[in-house]
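Batch job 17 of 40 flagged for manual review because the log was empty.
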Amino acid sequence: KISNDLVLESTSIVPQFPKIFTGSIIENILLCPPSSNLKKDNSLNKAILEKCLIKDLTENLKSKTVSSENSERSLSGGQIQRICIARSLQSNADLLIFDEPTSALDNENAMEITKNILEFSKSRFILLITHQKDILNLCKRVYSIKRGNLEIKDS
């Protein structure tokens, strides 16, 4: 029997409309309480930031405070998605579930981030839900439901 705690610890989900928490960007990625003292980003994997294209946010990682109530005014939808993707990749979860994780991004950035997610997470199981055909073409196996029937396509 698998415990609920084990399932929760082993799973990370990025929904189509992800949420951020009031605090700094780095606290959002690491899910640290605002009172914790982060030492010069030592616990943050810099490669994850690069893979999620968060370069435009890196200078404000610790200083910029975002609010969950007015996040749409302080960050774009694409920035919030990238922060939440970085949060998921930063986790130790073995199962990563991404539901339209790049829907707020332009096609070029969506493709690059998706390639990076797949490259960075080779030792994990990834469930990627998308309608974008270009992104589907990056996947090893595609499950689709057509007219009530399940179709499986291996690449």
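Reviewer: the log was empty due to a logging misconfiguration, but the result itself is present. DSSP finds seven helices and seven strands in the chain. Unflagging and moving on to job 18.
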